[in-house]
Predict the 3D structure of the following.
Amino acid sequence: MTTMTLPPGPSLPRFAQGAVVLTARLRGMRRMRARYGDAFTVNVPIFGRAVVISDPDEAKQLFTASTDLVENVRPNLGRVLGPGSLFALTGEEHREQRRLLVPPFHGRRLAAHERTIEDETVRETATWPEDRAFPALPSMLRITLNAILRAVFGADGDELADLREMLPAWVAYGSRLLVLPIPKTDLGRWSPWGRLWIARRRYDAIVDRLIDKAAAEDLDRRDDVLALLLQSRYDDGSPMSRAQIADHLLSLLVAGHETTATTLAWAIERLRRHPALLRDLAEEADAGGGALREATITEVQRTRPVIDVVGRHVTADGYRLGRWTLPEGCTVLVAVALMHEDEALFPDPLTFDPSRFLGVRPDLYQWIPFGGGRRRCPGAAFATMEMNVVLRTVLRHFTLMPTTEPGERRHSRGVANAPAKGGVAVVRRRSPEAMPPSTIGTAGARP
Ligand code: HEM
């Protein structure tokens, strides 16, 4: 019989450890790392016994492990997004579906979205007040929701307006339900899950209408994800079912919207506290450059990762992970924030210093805001391009005013960690003569 060897960890009761996770996750994890080293075992509600790691070699081994040994963390977003969502799929089926979903967010198709994102940013920021503090996050949420809706469905229209109205509340509600047991019977609007399912049926009806409309068009001329999925065929020649398409599209909308917006809100929060950098970035944007901006986005994601743990579920007894031998059913959580604060990987790790990434691509198993390996975020290139275009557009149209206020604290919104005050901005609009021309087509998708 294999002997299991788990890292050491606190012996506090599960509810007490759970309280630490809920109230002070990062502080609690830092304390445990100081006490037990870079791997420790916790016992928390939802996951039970979970091994937390932050060593890049162990994370790489986990992220690239065979799906016979390791699968996505349980529970995961698939519970609310549907059984056809990438989050819920496993093994070969997951690999197959990923192969279909990744191309629309890369290469030539990526460049096509740049203009839309710049237009969305100009339209949204037109309402920004001058010389008055306001949270940037609501604007960033609207820009990223519109950008992903357009990328997924192509043209605008009534259906998109309906989705724009329903999705934010759905995401907020669904992420709170993530950990609640799913009832065997549907109690309709009297139960939390019932309410979520009612909203889901409304979403399905909207997607049905969009599919009917798309089917009447020449799909070859369209570049959006819906058109691509409608044309895709399995090996036996059969098309993807409407339910599968609806699950995929919902996953992209949910996963691609809040994560990108909260990272952008953190970018505003960080930049205002680094006036010299802010000046350099504004000059660079005027001159049509982007290297410092790309490095800055990478550093924002290192120092303020909006998803702070990425999880996996061990599916084979005696799985050997680095120094440890883990039992079947064990959860492994890769602590993104702890890895990003490791002095051996990033000297002076708590200092916000984009120059560490100037002209240097991050190592994708040491810099992991998008997770890693078989399940690494398929929207990473799209999100990177999007953040680049939004920041570039803001820097060209506005002077962002620096502040000496202390940094904003982290606040969990369910899916992502946001700045607690929403990334407070104070801006001054630049005169049209001072604005440089647009440089569409130059926003790289670096990492
Ligand atoms: C800054 C923005 C974003 C961040 C920080 C982010 C982060 C993540 C992380 C940490 C994961 C889990 C990866 C893993 O388990 O190893 C993930 C998965 C995923 N993300 Fe993103 N994401 C972002 C934007 C996007 C966008 C724009 C899209 C859609 C276009 C997207 C779609 C997805 C999907 C579908 C998955 C599930 C992948 C799978 O299980 O195979 N994300 N993302």
